[in-house]
Amino acid sequence: PYPLEEDARNLASVLRELQTEHRAASQNLTCAFRNMLGDIEGYQVQQVGGYLVTKLHHLGVDDESRAPLFELFQESDGTLRLLGILTALYQEPARPLVALEEPELTIHPGALSLLWEEIQAASGRSQMLITTHSPDLLDMCTAEQLRVVEKVNGITHIGPISETQKRIIKKKLFAPGQLLREQGLTRTEESI
């Protein structure tokens, strides 16, 4: 069950392990999931034959009753992606490095700031590496958190944003996403 595979093929195993062995992490994951989606109350993992099946509890019509459990194949891509990201953030023991490629994809824009809060909280347990082209996600970052990646003559260069753009962001003249839209982000020349 540990660690969560890159393609999340062992998601059910990781979720079951969290429920049985790491209750606090499971409760935190469930709370974050509920805050972002609103109508999901929790998850359960059942063994069916030789397989593990994950189901999500949805709130009923009157908030007191529960609608039927839904298996993951019945859920939206955004719900599945969010469950996978949160599981990566809350897996126990925490991974030294968690890399998320474009976490904003298929996520409702209204949930993006809540997801960013979870990523920020997880950065206290794991080093976070996130790739994105989303101006909205960039606007949630500080200038110090940003790195520009570009390929020059077949060689990939990575570095902090230029000092000029850092000053613009710090003075709140533009947000990082606005800079990306208007002129693109530029990296410092002494980057690796």
Give, in spatial order, the strands making up the sheet with the most strands: 1-2-3
Question: Overall mean pLDDT score?
Answer: 92
* Basic shape: elongated
Q: Output the structural class.
A: alpha+beta
Put simply, the count of helices is 7
Helix/strand order, N-terminal first? HHEEEHEHEHEEHH
Gap between N and C termini: 36 Å
Radius of gyration (Å):
19 Å
Number of E-state strands:
7
Low-confidence stretches: none
Percent range for helical residues?
A: 25-40%
Textual characterization of the structure:
The chain has 192 residues and is an alpha+beta fold. 38% of the residues lie in helices and 21% in strands. The chain is built from seven helices and seven strands; from the N terminus they run ααβββαβαβαββαα. It has helices at residues 11-21, 23-37, 77-90, 109-122, 135-138, 163-170, 176-182, and strands at 40-48, 51-58, 70-71, 97-101, 127-131, 147-152, 155-160. The strands form three sheets. Strands 1-2-3 form a three-stranded antiparallel beta sheet, with helices on one face. It has a two-stranded parallel ribbon with strand order 4-5. Helix 4 (109-122) links the parallel strand 4 (97-101) and strand 5. The two termini are 36 Å apart.
